[in-house]
Structures are given as C-alpha cells and as structure tokens.
C-alpha cells in the first residue's frame, strides 16, 4: 500500500499494495436463490417516477492508461444500454477526472462536489468499479423500490467472521454485526444521504489518515457510531460472473475475464527484491524458497546482514523497527545499477509476503512498461523501470532510514504526477482477514503475514498454479 498523510489534508493509500415478479430473489454470498423482497424499503411516492436520468453513475476509475480504457468501456456500455432502452442518458463520471487531488480516490472527499452538482436535481449516486457489469433495466427496477426522499446506503453486504487488523479490530465482540459493501457489485447512496454527509464533512473536515480498506471505512463513516444508516443489502447487486446462469436475476455482475491482456510478461523480465533481516533468515526466507521463490528467474534477498548460505546482500542500511524507507530506496538504486540484469519490472516484497508470480506475469500484460507504473499494495509493490528512473531522477529521498517507505514514495510520486495504481488482487493481510465472499470472485496475486497460519499451506491453497495460470511457462529460479 502507498499512503500519503500531509498537513494539507491530502490522504492517499494504495494497497501497495461489482425483476419482475418471479419468485423473489434472496442471496447468500454469490448464490441467487429466490424473488427479492425489500422488507425495510418504503415504496417511493407513486407520483414521482424514477428515471435513469435521476441516477448519477460514478465509475471508480484510475489514472493509469489501462484503467482509463477499462472505465471508458464501461461508460460506453452504459450509454448503449440507455439508448436501447430509449431513456434519457444519465450522467456518467470517471472518478479520476473529477479532481486533481489524488486523495479523492477515497470517495468521501468528493461528496461535497457531488452534492453541489447533483444535490437538487438527482436521486441516486451509483458507484461502480471498472470490472462491474450492469444490466441497466434491472438496476432501474431495483432503485425504484426505495423511497428516494430518504437516506439509503445500498450494496452487497460483506462482514468479518473474526476481528481483523485491516479493520482495526472493529466490532471485536461480534465482527459479523457490521456489514460493509463489496464495491465490485456496485453500491449506491441516495441524494438525501449525500447531502447530509456533505454537511457533516463541511462542519468537521475529514482527517488526513491512512486508509487500509476503503469499503469498510466508508461504511463506518456513514454509520457514524449508530447515528447514520447501516448498509441495506440488495440481493440483485451481485458478484457472480456475468455469464453465470445464476446471474439472470442480478442487476450487477463482475467481469469473468482473467487479468490477461496479451502475452504474460516473461519471468526473466521481472527482477524480484525480497526485504528481510537477520532475525528472519531462519524462518521466513525458507518459506519463500519452498513456495513462490521457485517461480522467480531473477531474485535477490536484501538484509542487514550478508549471509552467503542464503545468500543475502547487505545494502548498508541497518534494520529498523518502523518504516523501511532507507532499504527500499537502496533497492531502487541497485535496480538501475550494473549489479543486476536490465529488466522492465521491479517487484519489491517483504519476506513474509506470499505471491503468485505467474499471476503477476499475467496481470502485468495489461500495463505498459514504457509508462511510469507503480502498482500493488504496501507489502507487494511493482514498479516499471520508467517509474524508478523518474523517481530517482527527481532527487526525492528518505528523511530518515526508518521513515515509512509507502508514505515517502507516495509523496514523491504525487509531486511527479505519477499515479499510484491500486490492485485489489494484492492483499495486505492473510486470507482469514478478508470476507469469504470478497475473495470468492477474485484470483488473488498476493497475501501477507505468517502470523498464526501455515504459510506454505496458505500458498498451496490460494496461490499455487491453477486454471488461471495454465499455459504460462514455468519459471526456473536463477538466484543472482
């Protein structure tokens, strides 16, 4: 994850790191079973019919060229559907174009802008991810079931089965009691709720802080310790694959395409840097060697101690208990030196990160290495060579060796106007720390932490070769 926390209120975190009267539909997880009955939704006034023009769509787009193309495809599809329905076209906004402030990816800072533009002439703000697929006529029927004069927060509900660090151990006594939306299914706010939240934001400006799991933190802010609405689950908002037969009653689905845009990046075109330290040489490094390390063609271990048995390389930066900015920048400099082969991509991971390199190779086929690309989450960061060149040429550096590397990198990249690209396929914690329904529609690229798990078993279950990586040539590790 990349994070930025500055005095001017800029806050960015990139975890660096979407019927008619037939039997009513009820959904549990991804299973659609019977007709939808919104028990707690008042009927809207009959004299005021909701039109698609009353819905503002916000596609949660990103500035990277691949993501811009994905968002534009979704916008075009929505407009074509509107034309086929002979409806007046709705407003469709791309999130990354709404502000120059990178922190606005976190949604809440944009609410005052949305309220000022649409707070009197619209009924709903519908948020979609780039891979959300929408059946407009079904979504229209769903929204008409709710009284748009009231405050509504709609989505596909997720909940924690146990308290988790990524949610700051919230609701530790009963984690399942609090529900938050799966953004992939789409989620909606009624305009009365948007307007009230805007008043709250204007009276008490948002704090500049780290964001770890946006969907959970948005739900917490809206709930407001019980003073605001809870998420209302809508069964027609689904995360089934778009062509799944069970999705016939769904208003939204997710793209069933794997993240593969062409030939996977060759393994010998990715240089892998593993950050470790002497105290973890005997327990964490062997896990890397027994699991994903075998998939790497070019890999080096960087430590505070040179151990020829591994081998590890001492970059001259002492180990720190807090951030690892000094070590990360030393790795960036080494990547551009003559000490390592010239590759287009640099992957930096912690020694307790579990990752599928074949899946990463497939994912990187969607990105242009000639562009400055910074992708991933805090414990799995991927840089294109061009990004590293621009970053180091800017003169940006750590204010101390133990500064948080994600924060410093985020500040530097923001100054360069280089976007930090979030991918939900990289994870900051263990599989146990995420809702099962959330992981069910993903092909994960990475997880993080060995705490209270068998990391080799986790790798074998979640990240080992599967149908998503069939056909990719197996890599042979050649440690330098």
Model description:
A hairpin with a 2-residue loop joins strand 3 (27-28) and strand 4. This protein is globular. The chain has 480 residues and is α/β, with parallel strands linked by helices. The strands form seven sheets. Strands 18-17-16-19-22-21-23 form a seven-stranded mixed beta sheet. Strands 6-5-7-12-9-13 form a six-stranded mixed beta sheet. Residues 1-47 and 471-480 have low confidence and may be disordered. It contains twelve helices and 24 strands. Helices cover 25% and strands 19% of the residues. The longest helix is centred in the first third of the chain and has 20 residues, at 65-84.
Main beta sheet: strand number and arrangement? 7 strands, mixed
Total E-strand runs: 24
| Rg result | 23 Å
Return residue spans where pLDDT drops below 50 for at least 5 consecutive residues: 1-47, 471-480
Q: Roughly how many Å apart are the termini?
A: 27 Å
State the assembly state of the protein chains.
Answer: single chain
Helix content: 10-25%
Counting DSSP H or I runs of 4 or more residues, the number of helices is 12
Morphology call: globular
Q: Briefly note the structural class of the backbone.
A: alpha/beta
Numbering strands along the chain, what is their spatial order in the largest sheet? Answer: 18-17-16-19-22-21-23
Strand content bin = 15-25%
- The residue-averaged pLDDT reads 87
Give the key terms:
single chain, 480 residues, alpha/beta
Give a topology summary.
Elements: E1 2-5, E2 11-14, E3 27-28, E4 31-32, E5 55-59, H1 65-84, E6 91-94, H2 111-118, E7 124-128, E8 132-134, H3 136-143, E9 153-155, E10 157-158, E11 180-181, E12 187-190, H4 191-203, H5 214-223, E13 232-233, E14 237-241, E15 252-254, E16 270-275, H6 284-290, E17 298-303, E18 312-314, H7 325-335, E19 345-350, E20 353-355, H8 357-364, E21 374-377, E22 380-384, H9 385-393, H10 405-416, E23 420-422, H11 436-440, E24 446-448, H12 455-462
Parallel strand pairs: 5-6, 5-7, 9-13, 14-15, 16-17, 16-19, 17-18, 21-23
Antiparallel strand pairs: 1-2, 3-4, 7-12, 8-15, 9-12, 10-11, 19-22, 20-24, 21-22
